[in-house]
Sequence to fold (255 residues):
Amino acid sequence: MAKLVSTEVTDGILTITLDRASALNILNAKACFELSDIFDRFAEDDGQRVAIITGAGDKAFCAGHDLIEDFSEPMPETGWAGLSHRSGLNKPLIAAVNGFALGGGWELAMLCDVVVADPRASFGLPEPKVGFAALGGGARLLPHRVPYHIAMGILLTGRSMSAADAARLGLVNEISAPGKVLETARKWAEDMLSCAPLALQRSKQLAVASANPASLRAPLQKMEIELTDELIKSHDGQEGLAAFAERRAPVWTGQ
Fold:
């Protein structure tokens, strides 16, 4: 079976490409297991010092979870995209957002340390519109990235925002020239490569611990799993999937 994620290592930089351009680089369970294996190898290989994550094509970074194919299949122990429940990965991760970053796609970008975006990129967490919630890290992380009311305005409406608005809120480090997002990400990676590897890893280790302490991380991740299971089994969760597949407006019951 063909791989859904491709990788390339050049001069210490691992480039990870979500490789489903025809489907806006959406991820299914298989792709998340592939990513988990990739991040395992990245963590263990001293020759891979920085990772850049991007999407194939020019339309999407990642449009989220595949709502048709194996939606309810379990994720790897490391969580959504092999990252959301992972601990101890102290090497730098850069998201090169080349287009839509929606749902789990934006969550994947949030799980990175630096985010650069093409001017055409857009960001959103539309999960409630299909009966679900941003439980791949979005609802847990976003309130720590922006003021509470900004976060809740995003989480409770499913609205999208432009790259410029995301940068204004501090959710994007840099907007590249059009079509140059990967080159911009590599410049960030090269600056990181000029620093001592262990110093970068310890900097990230402390920063992550301060923003996401272990005492909170484990129970919140457990809650994500429980809430995901609840929503998948709910009437509205099933209705949201059916409505999406049938391209109609969902009829919510609150159950």
Observations:
- The CA atoms of residues 161 and 220 lie 26 Å apart.
- The beta strands are 5-10, 13-18, 50-55, 60-62, 93-97, 100-102, 114-117, 122-124, 160-162, 174-175.
- The radius of gyration is 17 Å.
- The chain has a mean pLDDT of 94.
